[in-house]
Write a structure and sequence with these properties.
This protein is mainly α. The chain is built from 10 helices and no strands.
Length: 203
């Protein structure tokens, strides 16, 4: 554990995971309430939208893997964080089931784009600094994710109550964008296709 906590990649990945969890911790309780209260959606419709977003997450796994192979993890995670930050306010901006459902699928795909390479980076960080300590590094990840979820509820909840859900979403979106320098500081941009190698060759 002491070795892992001194590793930049582990710290950066844990912090980014906490911020992603903070954003998702706002989406899960507030988007259903927004759809029911503002868009007049039933609980069945809300459940269907989240089911479709889960399907989108599963289907995004292979494209995200290819994107990471072509452009590197840092690029993929940055892209996921950016799209997630842009998409979160849209989820509670207009009371339209179709718009919210589309934005929810987009944010879920962005979540996969940010989170999947992050987990791979943690595994590689273990190989570089503490071979075999996979259980320890994923314990750090789980703790960071749990803290992010709790902080998201504690911070975003009062903001949404005193101002609006949109204000809370914008606040977390700004935090996600501000976390991008963490990737340059901590993560090693690996797995991009070598110079001169075409995408077809990589495929």
């Amino acid at each position: 554990m002491p070795v892992l906590f001194r590793n930049r990649a582990v710290l950066a990945a844990a912090l980014v995971a906490a911020l992603i969890a903070c954003g998702w911790g706002l989406i899960e309780p507030d988007v259903p309430a927004f759809l029911i209260d503002k868009a007049g959606a039933s609980s069945t419709v809300v459940g269907l939208l989240f089911t479709l977003s889960s399907v989108a997450y599963g289907l995004a796994a292979t494209p995200v893997e290819r994107l990471t192979e072509w452009f590197g993890r840092r690029f993929a995670i940055s892209l996921g964080l950016t799209i997630m930050a842009v998409g979160m306010p849209i989820l509670v901006l207009y009371p339209s089931v179709i718009l919210v459902g589309t934005a929810l699928c987009l944010v879920t795909i962005a979540y996969a784009c940010a989170m999947n390479p992050l987990l791979t980076e943690l595994a590689d960080a273990v190989d570089r600094c503490a071979a075999g300590a996979y259980a320890s590094v994923y314990a750090i990840f789980n703790i960071a994710y749990a803290i992010g979820t709790l902080v998201g509820g504690v911070v975003a909840g009062p903001i949404a109550s005193h101002f609006s859900v949109l204000t809370a979403s914008l606040s977390i979106a700004v935090i996600l964008l501000l976390s991008l320098p963490l990737l340059k500081w901590g993560l090693i941009s690996v797995s991009a296709a070598p110079t001169g190698q075409t995408r077809a060759d990589k495929a």
